[in-house]
Amino acid sequence: MRSLLIAILCLAGATLAACGDSAPEYAAADSPKNNRVVAVRHEHVIHFAGNASALDAPETARLSRFLAGNRSESGAVIAVGPATTGAINAGRERTVRDALIARGYRPVDVVYVASADALNRVTVSVSSTVVVTPRCPDYSKPTEYNYSNTPHSNHGCANTHNLGVMAADPADLMRGRDEGWQDGAGSVLAVQRYRIGKVTPLLNGDTGSETGSK
């Protein structure tokens, strides 16, 4: 009888051990739900014909499309390649610089490149910030066990992703904006009208809806 009891206990222990968690427990740090703001550099090569220092119509259109699609928050850099004379180089620098400043790019830094590969070329470099969102959905956490009651790996993934893609300015996810100019006098008058019961009515209080029964 005693031997049978020991055998049963051993079998029960082996069964419980088999049911135990052999996989490492999931941790939220294994799959963070954060938006990352990274800087991306974009380059555009402008080709000048011969000894010309002015932009022709096709190059002007190409530059406009590039700047429209790659708005920079930190100015631009111009890399001026070798030309026949220094006067031509200076003219090309001035042409491209003026085109950038006219579109609001400040500051505009200039470097000169001596490489023969850059002959009759001016390279415009701009940097912009983009948001790298987490990959969603995230089902990396096993669903068959959760002994420590940790959140699911997909918890908060959609909200974080949506915030990242809706940000008009990715830099807003790194730092807040200044409140800007405020009209203190106007705010005080509004409080005074509220206190004496003379609140200014809305410009259009009619919402177009009807209440009551006919």
Characterise this structure.
There is one protein chain. This protein has 214 residues and is of the alpha+beta class. It has a domain at 39-130: OmpA-like domain (60s Ribosomal Protein L30, Chain: A, 2-Layer Sandwich). The chain has helices at 2-19, 57-69, 86-102, 157-166, 184-196, and strands spanning 36-47, 76-80, 108-112, 121-132. A four-stranded mixed sheet has the order 1-4-2-3, with helices on one face. The longest helix is centred in the N-terminal third of the chain and has 18 residues, at 2-19. The mean pLDDT is 81.
Draw up the topology in text:
Blueprint: H1 2-19, E1 36-47, H2 57-69, E2 76-80, H3 86-102, E3 108-112, E4 121-132, H4 157-166, H5 184-196
Parallel strand pairs: 2-3
Antiparallel strand pairs: 1-4, 2-4
In short:
This protein is an alpha+beta fold. Helices cover 33% and strands 16% of the residues.
Low-confidence runs of at least 5 consecutive residues: none
Named CATH architecture of the domain at 39-130: 2-Layer Sandwich
Quantity of strands, as a count? 4
| Head-to-tail CA distance between termini | 88 Å
Quaternary state of the chains? single chain
- Report the radius of gyration as a whole number of Å: 33 Å
Instruction: Write the CATH fold name of the domain at 39-130.
Output: 60s Ribosomal Protein L30, Chain: A
* Beta-strand residue fraction: 15-25%
The average pLDDT score comes to 81
- Overall outline: flat
CATH class call of the domain at 39-130: Alpha Beta
Structural class call reads: alpha+beta
Main β-sheet: number of strands, strand sense, barrel status? 4 strands, mixed
